Amino acid sequence: MSETLERLVGEFAKLPGIGRKTAQRLALYILKSGGDEARSLAAALIDLKEKARPCRECSNITEEELCGVCSDTRRDTTRILVVEEISDLMAVEATREYKGLYHVLMGAISPIDGIGPDDTTAGKLVERVKRGGVEEVILATNPNLRGEATALYITGALKPYKVKVTRIAYGMPMGGALEYADSGTLIKSLEGRREV
Amino acid sequence: MSETLERLVGEFAKLPGIGRKTAQRLALYILKSGGDEARSLAAALIDLKEKARPCRECSNITEEELCGVCSDTRRDTTRILVVEEISDLMAVEATREYKGLYHVLMGAISPIDGIGPDDTTAGKLVERVKRGGVEEVILATNPNLRGEATALYITGALKPYKVKVTRIAYGMPMGGALEYADSGTLIKSLEGRREV
Question: How many folded domains does chain B comprise?
Answer without folding.
Answer: 2
